[in-house]
Write a structure and sequence with these properties.
- The structure is a single chain.
- By secondary structure, the protein is mainly β.
- It has a single domain, classed as Acid Proteases (Cathepsin D, subunit A, domain 1).
- The chain is built from one helix and twelve strands, in the order βββββββββββαβ.
- The strands form three sheets. It has a seven-stranded mixed beta sheet with strand order 2-3-11-4-10-9-8. The protein has a three-stranded antiparallel beta sheet with strand order 5-6-7, with no helix packed on it. Strands 1-12 form a two-stranded parallel sheet.
- A hairpin with a 7-residue loop joins strand 6 and strand 7.
Amino acid sequence: MSKSHHHLQIIGRRENIGLPDLQATNVIAKIDTGAFRTAIHCISCQKIFKEDKEVLEAIFDLDGKGPKTFYFEQFSLKEIKNSFGQSEKRFCVRTKLRIGGRDIRSEVSLTDRSEMKYQVLIGRKTLLKKFLVDVNQIFVTAPSPH
């Protein structure tokens, strides 16, 4: 291994992560070096006015404990290619991900992943200069919650 990789934490192709800002722990995430951006399953999200401010209302149930609603004052709408190579507009927010005991603030896209096996897909932008992915392993940093 080259010297430039010594500071990188090794993770597997699937990891048990936390999303502290979204009050979710023990969420199984797929680590996907083919994806640029991290995507999180969102039951619904829409712009609303709350106290005379435009905010993004997003509903999540990432830990199976029931839907929780969150409001984001800072958000953007971006054109993102989905896993089929098709462009779609998605809301993006910055949130904290806890991977291997490290808290990382990252921009994530919110999308309906209800038909996908994993509610969270962690892309290269979140992993860059922090982690090295060992595709032969799973749950390197924390045991599977199941």
